[in-house]
Amino acid sequence: MPSDSPQPGPLGDSPQRSYADGLALFQRFAARELREVVAGLGLRGGDAVLDAGCGTGALTALLARRVMPGGRVVGVDISSGHVEHARDYVRRSGLPVTIAQADLTALPFAARSFDLVWCSNAINHVREPLETVKALASLLVRGGRLVLGQSAFLPDMFFAWDARLEKEVTRACYQYYRDLYGLDERDTAAVRNLFGLLKRGGLENVSARTVIIERTWPLAPEDEAYLLEVVFRAHWGERLRPYLSPEDWRALEQLCDPDSPDFCLRRPDFHHVQTYTVAVGSA
Question: What range defines the domain where residue 89 resides?
């Protein structure tokens, strides 16, 4: 069920682009908190659920376990790499889940098809978030719910002992992505208000809550893997060098290098905090 010619999102998303490895690391890192969020949705056996932007399929499977037996779960993603990964994941899980490639802005489903639409870390990738919210809401039965989840609306805390460096690294990272994709700050900040987005999309009984994902030393292997591979190497890395002073770059390099005596994930005072915000509205 692919769309004919989906347009790349503002962050360069396209059918050819995949974040599957990074998504899998995040889902293992935040597994406890994500399970609690899904458990709090009050899903029942027999519900029909759409995972809009299903990524690796891990959360799709988590949703499916809440509505089985008798439920129906469909996961869709624009990325062919994500679709392949998700199909393999749900196949190994043994759950009767359908995974399809589709653009969130042109989904091939009839109106009023689902009791719940889940959309996690995806609405910030579409060019028209409000129109996408309205389209997703149209798929809900009367009283059905649209759930938007998003990571890290507040600046993450990595270097609790050096707030200045932490602020400079966050600024550099945002500026790198704005330069890479030709965005300005308004393009990347407006989607932060998920609560307002659901309100403007015509949803009712809108609520929001933020879950804190907090880790301290000593870290579990899945925590260290996520921070090292996804944050330090994939999101930061050499790309931030032009956006930092030479002194700050050297400090960051030492803190993020596992071979350095200053490697921050081995510091006894390492303390990391990030957020995951969930907004829910009903049709």
Answer: 20-154+188-213+274-282
Q: Look at the block and give the residue holding tokens 């499977």.
A: 61
Mean pLDDT taken over the chain? 93
Question: Cα torsion for 11, 197, 279, 44, to the nearest 10°?
Answer: -100
Cβ-based neighbour number of residue 100 at 10 Å: 17
- CA angle 189/37/14 to nearest 5° reads 45
Interatomic CA distance for residues 183 and 110, integer angstroms: 34
Confidence check: pLDDT of 4 > 70: no
Helices (H), 40-102: 58-67, 80-93
The number of domains in the chain is 2
Give 168-212 pLDDT, tens digit per residue. 999 999 999 899 888 887 777 767 899 999 999 999 999 999 999
**Whether residue 74 sits in one domain with residue 52:** yes
CA 208, CA 222: separation in Å to the nearest integer? 28
241 and 205 within one domain: no
The half-sphere exposure of 244 on its side-chain side, counting CA atoms within 13 A, is: 25
The Cα–Cα gap between 120 and 278 comes to 9
Residue 10 near residue 127 (C-beta atoms within 8 A): yes
Q: Is residue 127 part of a domain?
A: yes
For residue 11, the model assigns a pLDDT of 64
What are the pLDDT digits (tens) for 99-114? Answer: 999 999 899 999 999 9
Task: Please state the pTM of the whole predicted model.
Answer: 0.92
